[in-house]
């Protein structure tokens, strides 16, 4: 039993005034020091607000990405391929990671077609070993990674009790755990040079819950927390040259993930506009981008209005996120899905077979 529990049981629970300040903190946290800290915080805070307003009026300076090596996960299709094309146009060497070999090959061709430098690697982001192995290969074959875009994502798209366990597991493996492994693989070199950028493609679903997306929303909420805590950790350790950006788009058209979404009032986003916004956030070192931007004003209402009001709003806005089941043929139990492993080449055009699961909903082409 802890001392505090013991004190409570014995009726000797100390109030805030009697609670002892630990020895090591007595000199540090005096009342005077606290007042100085608060005054400093207010002054510095006002400075940051003025700077942000000024930059939003005159525009933020854009960094040059020429020569940077950018890894884009899920780059074999959808938003990832559109981001890759833009980065290649800006002079980046683009490294695409995807489980979908055909999508990878198509995107590599597209990027090379516009004169870009591009490599494709087949990776199953649900496998930590695969991520570490291919990350090492990329560093050997392409070079130090300056820009990591954790974009790959999957959705189960059914009510929680109808979602098989393995799909819930996979959602978390790809949508958040993979971020840990890719960042652990590439961050040390960024820290060593105090330079680099980590981008987390999360979602508005990371801030607002939606029916049929329980696993997706919770994995995206985790991705939002991941970005914020990582940014703070880097700043605390003094690595101010390593930036992070959190991107939270509303439903996007034409990428394939939420093709049939039933959304009212707020139209689905154009995938090209979202890719442009992602690249702008990278070039201007924006810590977070909600797309569309007016959600930034609406979001705080979530904590201000009563829950039934919020529930009405979300259900009117998105009557059905997934009207057509994403995995109709899959069993609802946790029975293992019989899937024959396929042999794929580890790198586009280069030998080196590896075993991955066949893509289910991820086999879309650019
Ligand atoms: N489409 C939307 O409406 C929407 C809205 C908000 C956020 N997002 C997020 O944007 C990101 C991109 O989504 P998208 O719309 O382009 O989806 P998409 O399904 O078109 O593309 C996702 C890509 O990730 C790849 N992928 C999936 N599982 C993988 C795995 N295990 N290993 C390697 N690659 C894998 C797929 O093959 C595919 O190329 C995702 O993180 C998604 O959650 C999408």
Task: Provide the descriptors you would attach to this structure in a database record.
366 residues, alpha/beta, Rossmann fold, seven-stranded parallel β-sheet, two-stranded antiparallel sheet, 11 helices, 9 strands, globular, binds nicotinamide-adenine-dinucleotide
Fold and architecture overview:
By secondary structure, the protein is α/β, with parallel strands linked by helices. The protein folds into 2 domains: 1-59, no CATH class; 69-317, Rossmann fold. The protein has 11 helices and 9 strands. It has helices at 3-9, 31-58, 78-89, 101-113, 128-141, 165-193, 214-236, 271-283, 295-298, 301-304, 307-317, and strands at 69-73, 93-98, 117-122, 147-150, 196-201, 242-249, 288-291, 342-347, 350-356. Strand 1 (69-73), helix 3 (78-89) and strand 2 form a beta-alpha-beta unit. Helix 3 (78-89) packs across helix 8, helix 5 (128-141) packs parallel to helix 6 (165-193) and helix 6 (165-193) packs parallel to helix 7. The longest helix has 29 residues, at 165-193. The protein is globular. The N and C termini lie far apart (60 Å). The model is unreliable at 330-366 (pLDDT under 50). It binds nicotinamide-adenine-dinucleotide (NAD). Residues 74, 76-80, 98-100, 103, 123-126, 151-154, 174, 201, 203, 249, 251-252, 255-258, 359, 362, 364 line the site of nicotinamide-adenine-dinucleotide (NAD).
Element-level helix/strand string: HHEHEHEHEHEHEHEHHHEE
Number of helices: 11
Termini, distance in Å?
A: 60 Å
CATH topology of the largest domain: Rossmann fold
Rg is: 23 Å
Average pLDDT value? 86
CATH architecture of the largest domain: 3-Layer(aba) Sandwich
Contiguous low-pLDDT stretches (5 residues minimum) are 330-366
What is the level 1 CATH name of the largest domain?
A: Alpha Beta
The CATH superfamily name of the largest domain is NAD(P)-binding Rossmann-like Domain
- The figure for the number of domains is 2
Ligand set: nicotinamide-adenine-dinucleotide
The portion of residues forming beta strands comes to 5-15%
Beta-strand segment tally: 9
Largest pleated sheet: 7 strands, parallel
- Which percent bin holds the helix content? 40-55%
Name the strands of the widest sheet in spatial order: 3-2-1-4-5-6-7
Helix-strand category:
alpha/beta
Shape: globular
């Amino acid at each position: 039993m802890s001392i505090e529990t013991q004190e409570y049981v014995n009726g000797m629970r100390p109030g805030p005034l009697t609670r002892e300040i630990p020895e090591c903190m007595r000199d540090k946290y005096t009342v005077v020091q606290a007042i100085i800290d608060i005054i400093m915080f207010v002054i510095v805070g006002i400075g940051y607000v003025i700077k942000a307003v000024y930059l939003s009026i005159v525009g933020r300076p854009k960094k040059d990405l020429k020569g940077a090596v950018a890894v884009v996960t899920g780059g074999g299709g959808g938003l990832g391929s559109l981001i890759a094309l833009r980065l290649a146009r800006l002079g980046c060497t683009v490294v695409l990671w995807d489980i979908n070999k055909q999508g990878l090959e198509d995107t590599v061709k597209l990027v090379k077609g516009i004169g870009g430098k591009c490599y494709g690697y087949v990776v199953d982001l649900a496998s930590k070993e695969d991520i570490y192995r291919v990350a090492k290969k990329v560093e050997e074959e392409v070079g130090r990674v300056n820009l990591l875009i954790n974009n790959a994502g999957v959705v189960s798209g059914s009510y929680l009790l109808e979602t098989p366990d393995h799909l819930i597991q996979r959602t978390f493996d790809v949508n958040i755990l993979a971020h840990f492994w890719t960042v652990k693989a590439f961050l040390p070199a960024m820290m060593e040079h105090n330079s680099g950028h980590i981008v987390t493609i999360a979602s508005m679903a990371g801030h607002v819950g939606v029916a049929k997306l329980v696993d997706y929303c919770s994995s995206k909420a985790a991705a939002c927390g991941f970005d914020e805590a990582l940014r703070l950790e880097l700043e605390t350790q003094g690595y101010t040259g390593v930036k992070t950006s959190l991107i939270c788009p509303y439903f996007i058209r034409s990428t394939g993930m939420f093709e049939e979404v039933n959304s009212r009032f707020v139209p689905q986003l154009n995938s090209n506009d979202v890719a442009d916004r992602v690249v702008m956030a990278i070039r201007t070192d924006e810590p977070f981008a909600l797309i569309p931007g007016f959600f930034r004003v609406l979001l705080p209402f979530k904590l201000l209005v009563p829950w039934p009001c919020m529930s009405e709003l979300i259900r009117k806005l998105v009557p059905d996120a997934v009207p057509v089941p994403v995995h109709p043929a899959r069993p609802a139990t946790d029975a293992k899905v019989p899937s024959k492993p396929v042999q794929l080449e580890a790198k586009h055009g280069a030998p080196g077979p590896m075993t991955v699961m066949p893509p289910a909903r991820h086999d879309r082409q650019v």
